[in-house]
Amino acid sequence: MEIPKTHQAVMPYLMLHNAEKFKAFVSIVFDAEETYSAMRDEKHVMHAEVQISGSTIMYCDATEQWKAQTANLFVYVPDADATYELALANGATTVTAPSTQSYGRSCGVTDPVGNVWWITSVVSQ
């Protein structure tokens, strides 16, 4: 099996209300890079892909046939506290405030289109 270079064996595929708002949020908050985009028309994303630290997320605008389906996503970042603040400054709402857990410094936010992000950084021991 040969998987394209920008893909992994398993990737989330999000069907969203306002895919462009999602792209703007992940670009700013997680430094996501758009690697592919195809429009259905002037306003609606048919299929797009972004990469966050080498991991691909596929997404599109929801349609009558393909209803909106958001997700819970776990993401490692260098600084969970700074990323949390950046997410809030860009329209996210708090699910859980940053705290130190057994697996690292972690928090949760809901992005402006309804996805929940579990933001975590590894804490040195």
Topology:
Layout lengths: L12 E4 L2 H11 L3 E7 L5 E8 L2 E7 L10 E5 L3 H10 L3 E9 L2 E7 L5 E6 L4
Label this structure with key terms.
125 residues, alpha/beta, 2,3-Dihydroxybiphenyl 1,2-Dioxygenase, domain 1, 4-stranded mixed beta sheet, 2 helices, 8 strands, globular
In short, what is this structure?
The protein is of the alpha/beta class.
The CATH architecture: Roll
Number of helices: 2
Please report the first level of CATH classification, the CATH class: Alpha Beta
The major sheet is characterized as:
4 strands, mixed
Biggest sheet, spatial arrangement of strands: 1-4-3-2
Number of structural units classed as domains: 1
Strand content: 35-45%
Shape: globular
What would you call the structural class? alpha/beta
Mean pLDDT: 96
Q: Can you tell me the CATH topology?
A: 2,3-Dihydroxybiphenyl 1,2-Dioxygenase, domain 1
Gyration radius, in Å: 15 Å
List segments where confidence is low: pLDDT < 50 over at least 5 consecutive residues. none
In CATH, what is the homologous superfamily?
Answer: 2,3-Dihydroxybiphenyl 1,2-Dioxygenase, domain 1
Total beta-strand segments = 8
Estimated helix fraction: 10-25%
SSE string, helices as H and strands as E: EHEEEEHEEE
Distance between the termini: 39 Å
